[in-house]
Amino acid sequence: MMRLDQLPNQARDEKIVLLLRRHWFTVLPILFMFLGLSAAPLVAVILFPERLTDLLAHPTAGPLIALCASAYYLGVWLFTCFEFVDYYLDVWIITNERVINIEQVGLFNRTVSELHLANIQDVTSEVKGIVKTLLDYGDMHVQSSAEKVRFHFKDIPRPDQVKQQVLDLVHDDQGRHGTGTPAPTPMQKPTV
């Protein structure tokens, strides 16, 4: 597990500005699937109690049904744990020097990428759909100066505010380091 007080390749004056995970609402489908799959055998017990009692009393079918039910619940539990681990270990860290993308791909595969603020060319946020609009979460894309490097922040809370913070950090970084690459200009809010 990564300690946030010791980021990889951390500079002396580097400070964490934002630590982002996917929005909590994206966990609800995992929870509902777990509850639905867990309740399915119980519904069968309620609908067919006499038939199930006869089957469980059978010397061969009874242990086989118990074994299959145990394997089923173990599979449901493992699927739920796998999905939660994928949710929890996908992290985006924004510091005053760089953007770090930590993506868990499966149980034993993790990809860590970093992008220095001076290399950021474009930041785009998008919120699609009524639920994402009401709960204020969506995606953000950070495009670097490299040809195809693009960081995808998936289902993060407040993507418009995060985008603005990243643009402000890029602007501040240019002021500190005096790079010749023009920073993306923050969008001005209209005045009424």
From TrEMBL:
Transmembrane is among the record's keywords: yes
Region (Disordered): 173-192
Position of the signal peptide: none
Entry-linked InterPro entries: YdbS-like_PH (IPR005182)
Domain of life: Bacteria
Ranges that cross the membrane: 24-48, 60-79
Regions of compositional bias (Pro residues) in chain numbering: 183-192
Record domain YdbS-like PH: where: 92-165
Keywords: Membrane, Transmembrane, Transmembrane helix
A Pfam family per the record: bPH_2
Classification via PANTHER family: BLL0215 PROTEIN
This protein's name: YdbS-like PH domain-containing protein
Native species: Candidatus Uhrbacteria bacterium RIFCSPHIGHO2_01_FULL_63_20
